[in-house]
Design a protein that fits this description.
Helix 6 crosses helix 7. 41% of the residues lie in helices and 21% in strands. Strand 6 and strand 7 form a beta hairpin. The strands form three sheets. A nine-stranded mixed beta sheet has the order 2-3-4-7-6-5-11-10-9. A nine-stranded mixed beta sheet has the order 14-13-15-16-12-17-18-19-20, sandwiched between helices. The chain is of the alpha/beta class.
């Protein structure tokens, strides 16, 4: 554009000079002008000049802002190696668009697109990094060059939140000084935005952090070879999606080094697998990394994003994973200190369901969790004044190391006093220790965990035949709840559902299927898309629930009273969901209100027992409902 204006000036000067000369010089000058006009005409017809004409009025020589109106960069500026295709695909139709807001100064745009010849949707991310001005990019490159000279020590990553705050303040001061020295004006919001971006691309995890800020995402996958494959995401509404993000080898190597320091676990050729977690502010995610020789094409990442606030039974009801009766039954069993296994395939919602059941444990009871990667919502429960202790054990994939093994961790929990025991996932030899805990701790407090298995018999087969637990010890399991995704007929959509709640009977010897050792209390109805109570539950033929009731005054031999309490709990959970939809107050579905509601439910039940001898639903529910309505009005 500057060349266009310079040529225009030269042409005007040449025409003025033409008026002054005579003779042969005038002929030569005329030929020169015609030559300039020809070149000028060619330049004027170019696409860039035609597109720039509307902006010529405010153009000043040396000002390059006009180019920002004409062009968008195809890749992110060079302070990061990860590439980001900024243009929307031409053969696509927009399905949805929304913002991902970290702070008021750090906002990204997400566009969901449908491409003509692809069944997967396209997730297009437009972060603030891709919209920086030339001056802001210049400052970012200078600042990153200064910060990169700092070599972080491993201990700096043990307190990630504090380190990020320090780096943010340092970045802010550095950018302010650089802007002043270069004569660049920065507003407060621009300074804060650039500081956040700088932290993200130095000690942080780049665009991965922005993806994890999107509450709609559940999984993020980075496949090897990392620089040749785009990032894939799983969206809660749109399932699997391609993205416009192409990570670089340099960034992936940097992330791997940071995860090694954060976890304190090895990641090398001798130990090519790393299981760890990432916590940044409210972000919680489970990270699985593999490298050579297991992954011959290099590093690959699988990231499972956890919900910022724990899942609750009312939230699961709202999302149709289970119905109110299923929620009431599980709440009743947890209160009754039964032993439970949450089974299911990968990504079936096992850990989320287990986390929601932890909120059903009476807050007076102590809870001990045993995990190899920290996925359970322990911090959230601690903030809700739960008496909870977290134990982190060695990954089942590691044969040795400084960490304590899972089976030793479970046995240790038995020496830590009267507590509910929650095991993140039963993977290996710790199964024997878990069943030892179930048999020792049975009827004292709830013992629960998750395990991979698609049915009650699948769980039995895995525990007994794969993990070596004696068949008679398996009877220590009271309840198996199976969660699995169900798919649509076209195979393009899936939904998480709780498919069955089964009890394990105690009077069988070898094969629980042949000897009718499993009894369904509830099972999934495809037609109704919800759990249905079995005859065994309705008619009081459940050995586990009858055994529970036999130790409670007023319930022993009184199945109607027991079933009434299950229905009461279902009614309470359903009322919360209905009121949330009616009033628009979605916060009452969350963990904080759930804990308060459970406390009030137990308090009111206790009052009714004092008055009538039993927590009858026709007395408990109206009082609890009155409390709920008064709480909503606050």
């Amino acid at each position: 554009i500057a060349s266009y204006f310079e040529l225009k000036r030269i042409l005007i000067d040449a025409k003025i000079f033409f008026q002054r000369v005579i003779g042969d010089t005038k002929i030569d000058q005329g030929n020169y002008i015609r030559f300039l006009e020809k070149i000028f005409g060619i330049i004027e017809k170019t696409k860039i000049i035609q597109a720039a004409i509307p902006y010529f009025e405010n153009y000043r020589r040396g000002n390059r802002e006009i180019y920002s109106k004409l062009f968008q960069p195809d890749i992110i500026p060079n302070f990061t190696f990860t590439r980001l295709v900024s243009d929307l695909p031409t053969d696509s139709e927009m399905i949805d668009q929304y913002e991902v807001s970290i702070d008021e100064f750090d906002i990204s745009n997400v566009t969901i697109l449908k491409r003509k010849n692809e069944s997967k949707l396209f997730y297009h991310l437009s972060p603030p990094e891709s919209l920086l001005t030339e001056e802001e990019n210049y400052l970012m490159n200078l600042a990153k060059g200064v910060l990169i000279e700092h070599q972080p020590k491993a201990e700096e990553f043990t307190d990630v939140i504090r380190t990020r705050k320090v780096f943010f303040n340092v970045s802010k001061d550095l950018l302010r000084d650089l802007a002043q020295s270069k004569g660049i004006k920065l507003t407060y919001l621009s300074l804060m935005k650039l500081s956040a971006i700088l932290v993200r691309h130095t000690i942080g995890f780049g665009l991965i952090e922005i993806l994890l800020q999107d509450k709609n995402l559940q999984d993020v996958s980075l496949n090897a070879p990392i620089s040749q494959t785009p990032v894939y995401v799983r969206h809660q509404d749109y399932d699997e999606c391609n993205t416009n993000i192409l990570p670089s080898r340099e960034d992936s190597d940097s992330w791997a080094a940071k995860f090694r320091m954060i976890s304190g676990r090895p990641l090398d050729e001798a130990n090519p697998i790393l299981d760890t977690q990432l916590e940044i502010g409210k972000i919680r995610a489970r990270i699985a990394i593999i490298q050579e020789p297991l992954s011959p094409d290099g590093l690959a990442y699988s990231i499972r994003r956890h919900r910022e606030s724990p899942w609750t039974l009312p939230l699961f009801i709202k999302n149709k994973m289970l119905n109110p009766l299923g929620a009431g039954l599980l709440s009743f069993l947890v209160d009754g200190s039964r032993t439970l296994l949450i089974a299911g395939t990968r990504s079936s919602g096992k850990t989320s369901l287990l986390g929601s059941l932890m909120l059903e444990i009476n807050s007076k009871s102590r809870i001990i969790t045993v995990e190899d990667s920290l996925e359970l919502p322990v911090e959230a429960l601690r903030k809700l004044n739960y008496n909870i202790l977290r134990m982190k054990v060695r990954s089942a994939l590691l044969k040795s190391g400084a960490e304590v093994s899972a089976d030793d961790g479970i046995r240790t929990s038995l020496r830590l006093g009267d507590s509910s025991l929650i095991v993140g996932e039963v993977r290996s030899v710790e199964a024997k220790a878990l069943y030892e805990a179930m048999r020792v701790g049975a009827l004292a407090n709830v013992v629960a965990g998750t395990i991979h298995g698609a049915s009650p018999y699948g769980v039995f087969d895995r525990v007994v035949n794969d993990l070596g637990v004696p068949a008679t010890s398996f009877k220590a399991t009271d309840i198996i709840a199976v969660a699995n995704p169900i798919k649509s007929a076209d195979g393009l959509h899936s939904w998480r559902r709780l498919l069955e709640i089964s009890e394990v009977k105690k009077h069988w010897k070898e094969d629980p299927v042949r000897e009718k050792g499993f009894s369904d209390l509830m099972s999934y109805s495809v037609e109704k898309d919800e759990l249905e109570a079995s005859d065994a539950l309705i008619n009081g033929e459940s050995d586990v629930i009858k055994d529970l009731a036999s130790k409670v005054r007023g319930w022993a031999g009184n199945w109607d009273a027991v079933y009434d309490n299950i229905l009461l709990r279902a009614k309470v959970k359903n009322e919360i969901v209905n009121l949330a939809e009616l009033t628009g107050k979605k916060e009452i579905l969350e963990a904080e209100f759930n804990a308060i509601s459970n406390h009030q439910f137990h308090r009111i039940s206790d009052e009714v027992i004092e008055e009538a001898g039993l927590p009858m639903s026709d007395k408990v529910f109206p009082r609890w409902q009155k409390w709920l309505n008064s709480e909503i009005k606050k």
